[in-house]
Design goal:
2 copies of one chain form a homodimer. The first copy, chain A, is mainly alpha-helical. Helix content of chain A is 53%, strand content 5%. Chain A is built from 6 helices and 2 strands; from the N terminus they run αααββααα. A two-stranded antiparallel ribbon of chain A has the order 1-2. In chain A, helix 2 (30-37) crosses helix 3. Chains A and B meet through helix 1, helix 2, helix 5 and helix 6 of A and helix 1, helix 2, helix 5 and helix 6 of B. The first copy, chain A, binds a DNA duplex (30 and 30 nucleotides) through residues 1-6, 29-31, 39-43, 45-46, 48-49, 59-67, 96.
DNA sequence: CTGGATGTAACAATAATTGCTACATCTAGC
DNA sequence: GCTAGATGTAGCAATTATTGTTACATCCAG
């Protein structure tokens, strides 16, 4: 394992829902999503819970319930997803235990590094904002093998 | 703990060495560096070992030994450091277990996601390349309290 | 030859992520 | 109302990465 796969799973789920909702009779459940993602339904519900808190999806409870996108796929960027799944911690961590304040470098390194790391985070956010779930759905469908 | 702090520690160490080597008589040892970073000398040696493999520093063994930069601080970018410390794995991970190949989304999501994640990595690398150890040293020294 | 440094293996502690079970809760439809 | 079927969520185990630490082999200036 290396980093986390929350963004990957969330994008998978949203793209799946974007395709699924083209059929008005279709119902997106955590069970069906779990089969596509190849994981446990609870993992999907955890993920969808975060997306719901961010306002990207809605859930209905009770029998025959399921999930819906609250916006058009064109209006959901990967930055929205990224922020929703709480990957918003800094990309690179500072020191675990604070460096020596009595050394010039130890004293100034964190304040000097912070804006650099901030620019890195911003670069990632800028890039994430350029892709939407609609883009993802188009690219995913373009991967399909010829049905001949 | 969240991500790793290897880049932070490596930049700290290199910036320290850049300042230290202004005094020709100074010797950079893992012990002295560990005090500034506030960690164990072995952690520093591990870090310096990666920087040496990347050709950024040299080590001398034996008594009175220590470490040297192999280039001017102006010629070491944070991208060099990033690559040296092996943080080069993808920023965001793909699925742990491969998604369902019999679902259109499961089939195409990884190929569609890969170039997106590649662009993210590239955005980070581009940003990292804009800062050098010399920049860091200047900014660190600018943080010092007035010596009045 | 010896002191002092690097080089490195091995291990413990901590934390994050993921997958899983179990169960409470809700509601459409009978 | 009841019930089937779904969400909501607590809690735990397994895996992994990171960091810190001890211990010891190795090297070399003096």
């Amino acid at each position: 394992m290396s980093g986390n796969s929350r963004l990957c799973v969330a994008v998978h789920v949203l793209t799946w829902m974007a395709l699924d909702q083209r059929d008005p009779a279709a119902v997106a459940t955590s069970q069906r999503l779990a089969v596509s993602v190849n994981t446990n339904p609870v993992v999907i519900r955890r993920c969808l819970g975060q997306l719901r808190e961010a306002g990207l999806v809605q859930s209905r409870r009770g029998a025959g319930a399921g999930w819906n996108l609250t916006r058009a796929p064109e209006q959901i960027t990967l930055l929205d997803v990224h922020l929703a799944v709480g990957d918003d911690e800094q990309l690179f961590a500072l020191h675990h235990s604070p460096p020596s304040g009595s050394c010039p470098i130890g004293f100034g390194i964190q304040p000097a590094l912070r804006p650099v790391f901030g620019r890195l985070d911003e670069a990632v956010r800028r890039e994430l904002a350029t892709t939407t779930i609609a883009d993802m759905l188009r690219d995913v469908l373009a991967q399909q093998p010829a049905t001949a």
